[in-house]
């Protein structure tokens, strides 16, 4: 019996579903209407609407970080993809698997340079590891299977499938069978031997990333540290880090280059485990870019290799029978009432954080004073702004909550960062996601005030300061959240914040707290 007839869109959606991609974060347009129709007709594909493409791409990143598998995005032509590029950049730096579906004008229409005509492959090339644009519906299903295969390839890749409207609507499509993805490669015996020599011959540090920062890999690293005295590090903004009581402690490399160089300079050897050599975020006058340039560096595992298995093997040879060093539970004391500060707010979060929470951290300067307070809080996962393109925190929370509906998500946001993708709150309300958002409202781009001084900008005058402050008028996050269907309160004292955070954790669905923090507090 012959296969049923279907158009290219249905072949794509069925192939994605059969390949294990069953969630689509979407902001479609006219060129994608046949894909929208196919999603409606194909059982087993969940669609989550975002009101801005940066929410869509960031949510796909959050899903991938928590599940290790790709979600699909659905984006409208070149401009829609362009709106989502910043958070695809973050996803690429996080090594998150993502499959982008991007519509294009019908093949015959592209020659007329209509208003939305753009070089879609050129837009996609900036963030994608793999791009394809099938020219016939019979090729669409196979291209979708290949996109999933590419996205799943270790350590995680961005695959972009561009679908012209006529390829989407024409009959003759055929779903394709799932394709096997490239599994992580096995680490060589030589690399393991080199790591063992370094661990036994002096002050060694291990820079961990990917699977090395959670589960079996992190526990093995903890055993190695306990047996050898090695120090464990992670990037300033690690994609995902297991943290809290009962887990192995990992030191975060400082954001600023000078203290990072000083810290790593205490080592005799730096061992890279799924991580590239550490570099400064920016170049500053008179400062080095390579943070470990003066430290001998070796590679235990490259990003595409099995970091967890490598750590387990090293531990079996140098830490047999040794238990990992883990963090003892410790609840910080309740801060005294008074005007709210960032440190007090983080202490409250640490005291009340639910077991197995997911923390999306994009509060930057406001979260820094309380980072240590969270170290011994209830066990939790932290998701960071890996690529430095702000506006990822709220969308990451959306994707994490969709991926893990049984876990509370706590989104720690700066007020400036929140305004990039504030539309994510609407998606949280629509999907009834258990996300508690704390917006640290210090009314400024505080990190940029630090940067102006760091690059030698001197004392900022009124025009310079006007580009860094968020006043005149003050943003009203209670009104913004309420307007998108999310309950919200404002807190400017410690007692108000503690009561609001407790209320939020006891509320099903999303909740926003505007934490008013005086500048510098």
UniProtKB/TrEMBL annotation:
Keywords: Thiamine pyrophosphate. PROSITE patterns: TPP_ENZYMES. It holds the Pfam family TPP_enzyme_N. It comes from the Bacteria. Gene3D superfamilies: 3.40.50.970. Residues 6-111 form the Thiamine pyrophosphate enzyme N-terminal TPP-binding domain. The keyword Magnesium does not apply. Residues 386-514 form the Thiamine pyrophosphate enzyme TPP-binding domain. Belongs to the TPP enzyme family. This is Acetolactate synthase large subunit. It comes from Microbacterium fluvii. The lineage of its organism: Bacteria, Bacillati, Actinomycetota, Actinomycetes, Micrococcales.
